[in-house]
Design goal:
Number of helices: 5
Strand order of the largest sheet: 2-1-3-4-5
Number of strands: 5
Order of helices and strands: HEEHHEHEEH
Radius of gyration: 14 Å
Helix content: 25-40%
Largest sheet: 5 strands, mixed
């Protein structure tokens, strides 16, 4: 686990915030290098699949030329939902490091734990830069409620 990669995920979340998207960012790392970066784009793309994690997986698969992301780790600012957890497992990502826990939809321990249910096991570690990850989401929804976004 490396804080610089979580900071890179936070930078992606800030990009989402700036365009009025829920501020969640993700990066995928292989051999200590970022190979994919993404942030939420569900609203701008009008597509339920455009979570940061799914977009990052797509980019990493294209970069590596295959669907298996063995030897890769993901850093994401919010605990992945069940859809993203499934994609992470299917992509064979080894470790997921996330910032804030998601008590409404988190699938790596908060509402359920999908990390060990299938043949490929994912090691998930939460609470990394949790305060920063949580704060940007809180700020976003506060502005949204005030109709500033």
């Amino acid at each position: 686990m490396d804080i610089k990669f979580m900071n890179a995920a936070l930078s992606e979340a800030k990009k989402a915030f700036e365009i009025g998207e829920t501020p969640i960012g993700a990066v995928i790392v292989k051999d200590d290098k970022i190979i994919a970066r993404a942030y939420n784009r569900r609203e701008t793309k009008k597509n339920a699949l455009m979570h940061a994690e799914i977009s990052a997986i797509d980019k990493a698969c294209r970069k590596l030329g295959g669907w298996r992301l063995c030897g890769c780790d993901m850093y994401v600012t919010l605990e992945p939902c069940p859809m993203c957890a499934g994609a992470i497992i299917q992509a064979r990502i080894e470790n997921v490091f996330f910032g804030a826990y998601d008590n409404k939809a988190g699938a790596f321990g908060s509402t359920c734990d999908l990390s060990g249910l299938l043949a490929h096991k994912v090691k998930a570690t939460g609470g990394i830069l949790e305060e920063q990850s949580s704060e940007i989401i809180k700020r976003f929804f506060k502005k949204l409620r005030k109709k500033e976004i």
